[in-house]
Amino acid sequence: MSNAFSSIYGENAPGAEGVLPLSEIEVMIRARYPLLYVVTWEEERALVEIHRISQLLGKKVYDWTISNGIARYRAAVDGRNEGRKDTKDPIIALREVQSNAEPAIFVFRDFHDFMQNSEVKRRLRDLAAQLRSSFTTIVILSPLMRLPEELEKDISIIDFPLPSRSDIDALILQIGHDIAENPALSVDTSPESREAIIDASIGLTLNEAENVFAKTLVAAQQLTAAEAPLIYTEKKQVIRKSGLLEYIDVSDTLSSVGGLDQLKAWIGRRRAAMDPQAAKFGLPSPRGLLLVGVQGCGKSLAAKSTAAELNYPLVRLDVGRLFSKMVGETESNIRRALAIAEAIAPVVLWIDELEKGLSGIRSSDSTDGGTTSRLFATILTWLQEKKSPVFVVATANDIEKLPPEVLRKGRFDEIFFVDLPAEDERREIFAIHLARRNRPPGKFDLDLLASVSEGFSGAEIEQSVIEAMFSVYGIKSDIETADLVLALKRMVPLSRTMGRSISERRMWAIGRTVSASSASDMQESLEQAGAEEQEKDKLYFDYLNLRNTASPNAAQAAAEYLGTFPKKQEDAEKMKLYLQNYSKLIKEITE
Length: 591
Hints:
The chain contains 27 helices and 15 strands. The chain is α/β, with parallel strands linked by helices. The chain folds into five domains: 3-159, Rossmann fold (3-Layer(aba) Sandwich), CATH 3.40.50; 165-241; 254-418, Rossmann fold; 423-497, Orthogonal Bundle (Helicase, Ruva Protein, domain 3); 525-590, no CATH class. A seven-stranded mixed sheet has the order 9-11-12-13-10-14-15, with helices on both faces. Strands 3-2-4-5-1-6 form a six-stranded mixed sheet, sandwiched between helices. Strands 7-8 form a two-stranded parallel sheet. The longest helix is centred in the last third of the chain and has 28 residues, at 522-549.
């Protein structure tokens, strides 16, 4: 081994038996990188790691803070050594480093604010050149990444990883050992229990994990797999502090969603594939799914229920929250949001109404300097390359507004079309919403309600139940089937007011997506819609012929009395009635 190689690796040269893989910090210190910027919230854990490295390399560790100046760091000593005189000043502290002749690691905590000072920047650049030929390294520890442009080529950035599964496992065993003599408290250290606790804790810092374990022991007097939901509440705090993601509490499982049997079966198969044995079988971690279709038909409810079914926490990504007026802040926000999602995995990441968040992508270069395009590219790359167990559920109403790159295989495992519920599904939806409001479904004529509610979405069916309850409150003791029928008759479903738009979406979905329901009558409905469109066209042409053959005075008088001919979005029956009255008036005026 050459002397240069020995000076870098010392006793721990790669290939030696029993040597563990080197951490990124250790690799760079051994390679004599002069300036390191370690991004972490865990100062103490990072300092312990740096101290471990210093012991291996025979170096001293000095710790600088604005409150204490430079002091010798000793991991096993309680309290902090008094700092050297006058070294609280960052420029004087850097001079101390410059004058140091012994092998050492100088750690500067929260130094990012002082790096904006022109003299500090210059001294750091001078030190970068000086320390390359020495055995001294400067490590800047900060929770925030704020690097001046002038120092980009001189400083190497390291993202200090969150605690690994083995780190948290060691903490659980340590707590179990510490409370072993306390009969009032217990920790289940069986492999199965530890695995469940680790799944709930992964993504927390070691301090956060230790705090939530202590909190759980105080609240429940035990730390077992059954306490995993309590540990998840700490993750909720992490998400709330970020301001980029929203933690959603879920209680409804897929059994509380009416219909969508093919989607439910698919999720059941993916849930089975999340078992550790599935990885040994060769199955990749499921990516997620894209739900498209008609508004109010259960896409958002399915996203929430999927999280409950998988027993994962649910976080919602609102793309609109990511945009900022500050240059570069939007791109930084999406990276932070995705990093948080990966840190708290396993998790279900719900991206609601995806097409609205990316609606400006086609004009991005001319409207927002390409920000939306870069945001979209980051999301696409992450969807393609992610390895962590983040199960993505994206929803979209108007799929034609989505860029084609989103729809190709590899971004999502499957694209499901959620259509208007069929008759059997409407019966099931009525039963669910009546039971949810403490009304026995057996007391109602569900077959009649399912028949009368043709063309209604699940949300509209729920609203009809609520409307019926409002209508009878204070008048009679409870709702009956007739009240629900009356509420349905009063409502105009979206399938009628937006019939053409919904038909176009259904037409697009055939052959491009998988139906979420085996009971879907999409093809039959499209044929009926096509026949109705032809009938409307014929009625309109009959009206034009009648108007053109009548005298101008008669046509004008009839139009003033009846108004204009119904628009094509209107029901065909309205067109028929108008045409009958128009023909009758023309005849009477002419005679």
